[in-house]
Model the fold of this input.
Amino acid sequence: MTARRADPAADDTAAIVWFRNDLRLSDHRPLTEARREAARVLAVFVLDRSAGGAWAVGGAALWWLHHSLAALSEAIRKAGGTLVLREGDAATIIPALAEQAGAASVHCGRSHEPALQELDRRVEQALARRAIALRSHRVSTLFDLDAIRTQSGKIYGVYTPFARTCRSLPDPDPPLPTVTRLQAPRGAFASDRLEQWHLPPTRPDWAGGLRDTWTPGEAGAHDRMRRFLADHLEGYGSSRDIPGDERGTSMLSPHLRWGELSPVQVWHAARAAHAAAPGRKPDAGGARSGFETFQNEILWHEFAAYLLHNNPAMPDEPLRAAYARLRWRRDPRGLQAWQRGLTGVPIVDAGMRQLWHIGWMHNRVRMITASLLTKHLLVSWQEGEAWFWDTLVDGDLATNSASWQWVAGTGTDSQPFFRIFNPVTQGRKFDPEGTYVRRWVPELGNLAPRWLHAPWEAPAAELDRAGIRLGQDYPKPVISLEAGRDRALSAFRNEVRAAS
Ligand code: FAD
Done:
């Protein structure tokens, strides 16, 4: 028997767990492995505001990070441990802490983000100089991304065969149990106070809508997942496209982004909920059950991670080289109208205002707003991507960049460039009564459903009756939808012609 097992209190073996985008205690392999290896575990989070360059954590996500770290710190304290918070370069801080703790290894989650991968290399080298090992573990994907290849050993560029392959693999192992007991290494480890990082906004405090909407942290994540799976999973196939249905989707994305939940936990919990659902059958929306549709979305999340892992330049450069020289327009006025939710196109403005208020936007509306920017306004997808990055609480480098490229038509598995969402048709189809638009664009609240998605088409008497003076109470459209569409089509066509 080892000394550790004989007398745990006398055992001074130590390991470090370096938390990053995996702010949880359950299904957490770095923590589980560290505890297996050592009697004492030091939990550390390092804030590096400049890490990631242009993709340093955005404003809304910093608000989330603050609250998620507070929750993690409290959970670790309850388990008997301590979360050490330090600001600076992890390649300096982590090795110094490991040395002070007398740790033989540092455990962390594996990342598919290029900046984190580069940081891992630097930390690994600095640790190696002290004969300390860096051990990284899968924490944010269902599968080992390197193991997913086509039959000829190539990388998938298209979702459907990728998802088919994922489904043919053995199911991910069930989630690891929650770590409930932790003991820190002996000694005093200097830690910053979370408050001194000033992560949430103060002047002005724009986070009211975020506070009203979200409960960051592992407990909040599980609570949201339980409620969604128990009551809404079976209807998900048809409800997921209705932005006015506030329970139509899970709203788990920020919890997944910060790793308060792992995709493995969601995958298994969804399967269990589906098996337990009374009279489960395909829902009205089509042949697939809500469960299968939901699983497909989790696989889209996996696919985005896979694309970034294999295309590190994806956040900045088009995946399809043919679009690299496309001449996007500089349109500060149009971009600002879009950002502020003042384009005069109601479903777009509703989405952009929802984003500003609660740091999240419904998926259908993300597609519509992104399409208006990149196609009708012909403003580059990178401009939209950057705005989403700064305003989303779920801003995720892989999913955000893959999705923007998908909408703009520059990705490997994108909708074709000639497919341009008509925001009026989309609004009428997915928000027929205008529930969503009325909620976020209250100045249009009295307009009849028939005119709500295109107020510029409404007869003067209708506008009068609804108390709207177009151009004063609500803007006229920033662009004619027909003209914008034609311009986008010819720009994309020219580009394709020039490249072929
Ligand atoms: P649900 O419908 O409940 O789906 C469950 C989970 O599946 C989500 O939490 C998410 O992890 C995953 N998922 C769902 N839809 C997609 C999708 N289209 N692509 C990839 N994964 C998906 N998602 C982010 O998490 N972060 C982003 O930064 C992000 N940026 C986006 C930008 C654009 C332009 C577009 C069109 C989509 C973007 N998405 C992003 C994808 C999607 O809109 C969100 O994941 C989804 O709206 C989150 O809501 P939910 O948790 O209720 O999703």
In short: The beta strands are 14-19, 40-47, 83-87, 103-109, 133-137. Residues 240, 249-253, 256-257, 297-298, 300-301, 304, 363, 366-367, 370, 388, 392, 394-396, 399-400, 403-404, 407 surround flavin-adenine dinucleotide (CB under 6 Å).
